[in-house]
Amino acid sequence: MKRTIAIVAGGDSSELPVSLRSAQGIYSFMDKEKYDLFIVEIEGHRWETVLPDGTKVPVDRNDFSFQYNGEKKKFDFAYITIHGTPGENGILQGYFDLIGLPYSTCNVLVSAITFNKFTLNQYLKGFGIRVSESLILRKGFEISDQEVMEKIGLPCFVKPNAGGSSFGVTKVKTQEEIQTAIEKAFIESDEVMIEAFMKGTEITCGCYKTKDKEVVFPITEVVTSNEFFDYDAKYNGQVQEITPARLSEDTTERVKLITSAIYDILGCSGIIRIDYIITEGEKVNLLEINTTPGMTATSFIPQQVKAAGLEMRDVLTDIIENKF
How far apart are the C-alpha atoms of 149 and 2, rounded to whole Å? Predict the structure, then answer.
C-alpha cells in the first residue's frame, strides 16, 4: 500500500513564492508509483491540501488530516520545504512531534539553532569551526556607527538574524549606510546580525545521512557579479554556479569532512546544505546552514545530486524511508 506524503510549502516569510516552487520541484522528483503525493500550503491560519483537480480543502490541524472523496485522509509523512518560519525554525517540527507524524527535516532544537545565525555561529565556534566576527542587535536596542566600525569594521554584512532567505541583507561599505541597513533587516526579523565581511570564494555543499548511508554531494562554487549572493543572484539568474567547484583536491576533501562533521555535531536529519567562504590560505569559513534547502529543478541540491550521478527520486525515497 502506498504511503501518503504531504509536501508542506508556503510559510510566513518573504520566501513563500520560492517555497511553492520548491514544492513543485519535489512533487516532480518523487516516486509517484511508491507514494501518493499532496502539496499542503500553509500561510498563517490557512492550511490547505491541494487536490489533484487543483481545488483546495482545509487541513484539520488536530491530526493534519483532510477530506478526500468524502473520506478522512491522513498523512504518513511530511516533507517540509518551507523556507523561513514556521517550517525552518522548529515550530512546525514541534507540531508534527506532538501529533506523531514523521517529517523530513532536523528536529525542533536543531532547526531552531540553525535558523538563528548568531546562535549557530557561536555554538559551532566551540567545536573549532571557523566563523566570521559578528554581533547581535535586538529590536528596541540601538548601536552607534562607531561601535560597528570598532567591533566589526567595514565592509560588513547586516542581515536578519532569524530568517531563511536573502531578504533584508545589505553589504555595508560606508558608515552612512549602517543605520539604514539595520532598519531594513529589522523588517524581516526581530534580531539583526552584523557580521564582518570575508573576502574569498563562496561555495555550498549538500549532505544527508540515513541509518545505513552517508552522502556528501559534490561542492558548488557560486560566482556572481552582484555585491553578494543576494535574492536576484539566487532566483533571477544573476549567478554562475559551477559543480563541482574549482577547488584543490585537499580543500574539497576538507570541506566535505567539515560538512559531515557539522551534520553529526548538530544531529541533523534529512538533506542540509552548508554555505562557506574559502578565504586566503584555503581557510574554510562557515556562512550558514540551510535545513530546508531550495528544491526547484535549478536549485543547488538537484544540481549536486545530478553531479554525483544520483537520482533525486532515489534521494527523496531515502529521506522518507529512513523514518520508518
Answer: 58
d(CA 239, CA 218): 18
pTM of the model: 0.90
pLDDT of residue 235: 47
Q: How is domain 3-103 classified at the architecture level of CATH?
A: 3-Layer(aba) Sandwich (3.40)
Cα 129 from Cα 35, distance rounded (Å):
39
Q: Give the DSSP per-residue string, 224-235.
A: -SSSSS-HHHHH
Give the helix ranges, DSSP H, for 66-162.
Answer: 91-99, 108-115, 117-125, 145-151
Cβ distance 178 to 145 under 8 Å? yes
Grid coordinates given for 94: 514541534
Distance, in Å, from the CA atom of 29 to the CA atom of 75, rounded to the nearest integer, reads 19
* CA–CA distances in Å: residue 62 to residues 67, 96, 98, 101, 314: 13, 11, 10, 12, 32
CB 122 within 8 A of CB 132: no
Q: Which fold has domain 111-128+199-321?
A: D-amino Acid Aminotransferase; Chain A, domain 1 (3.30.470)
133-196 belongs to CATH 3.30.1490.20 = yes
Mean pLDDT of 4-28: 94
Give the pairing of strands 156-160 and 170-172.
Answer: antiparallel
